[in-house]
Amino acid sequence: MRGGSVPVTDEAIEKIKTMIVSGELGPGDRLPKEADLAERLGLSRSSLREAVKALSLIRVLDVRQGDGTYVTSLAPDLLLDALGFVVDFHRDDTVLDFLEVRRILEPAATAMAALAMPEAEIVALGGVLAELGEEPTVEALVANDLDFHRRIAAGSGNPVLCSLIESLSGPTARARIWRGLTQEGAVRRTREQHQAIYEAIASRQPEVARSWATVHIAGVEEWLRTMLGSAEGALTSAEVNGSGKRSAQDRP
C-alpha cells in the first residue's frame, strides 16, 4: 500500500502545472524560492521538493544547482523525450503495436511533407537516397531508412508529430534488420518504395505520398505478423545483432 505522501506530492505537481498552464509561469521563467512557493501554494517544502523532482524528470522544470528552478522551453521534442524513455522498455512482442501506430502516423506526416517541405530539404532528402551504395549492408540500409523517415517527419512541419514518429522508430529498427536479412527482395523493395515516396513528395502529390508510405510500413508489419505466427520465425538478439553487418546479398 502506498504511503500518504503520494497524494500530497500529486497535489503539489498539479498546483505547479496549473501555474504553468494558466500562464502565470511561462517557458524560461524562474520559480519563486522554495520557501515562498511552498507557503503560497499551501504545501510542505518536502512535498514541493518531490514535485519539482518529478517535473524535472519529464523535462517540465530545469533545476540548476546554485541558480534556481526554471520552467523549460516546453518544446514538444523536449517533453516527448519522456515518451522515448518509456518506449525503450518495449518487449519484442509489442513491436507489432509500434508498427501499427507508425502506419497510422507516418502516412499522414508524409502527405503533409509533400505540401510543406521546403525545396532545399526535398533536395537533401534525395541526397540521402543517393548516399546508399549499390550493395549496402542491411545495417547501412536501416540507418539510411531511419534518416530518410526522420527527415520526412521533420518536413511535415509539425514538431509534435515529428517527435512522436522519432520515438516510435527505435523499437521497429531491429524488425527491419531482421526482414532485410531473411525476406527475399526486401532490400530492393525498400529502396524502390523510398524512391517512390521521395518522388511523390518532390512532385507535391500528398495522396500519392500517403499511399506509398502506407504500403512501405504495412509491408514490414505484415511480414512480421507472418513471422511471429510461424514456429520458424523466432527472433533472437543474436540473429539480429550478430548478423546486422552482413551484406544484403548474403541474406538467406
From TrEMBL:
SUPFAM superfamilies: GntR ligand-binding domain-like, Winged helix' DNA-binding domain. PROSITE patterns: HTH_GNTR. Keywords: DNA-binding, Transcription, Transcription regulation. InterPro entries: GntR_C, TF_FadR/GntR_C, Tscrpt_reg_HTH_GntR, WH-like_DNA-bd_sf, WH_DNA-bd_sf. One of its GO terms (molecular function) is DNA binding. SMART domains: FCD, HTH_GNTR. Pfam families: FCD, GntR. Residues 6-74 form the HTH gntR-type domain. It comes from the Bacteria. PANTHER family: TRANSCRIPTIONAL REGULATOR, GNTR FAMILY, UXU OPERON TRANSCRIPTIONAL REGULATOR. This is GntR family transcriptional regulator. The gene is pdhR.
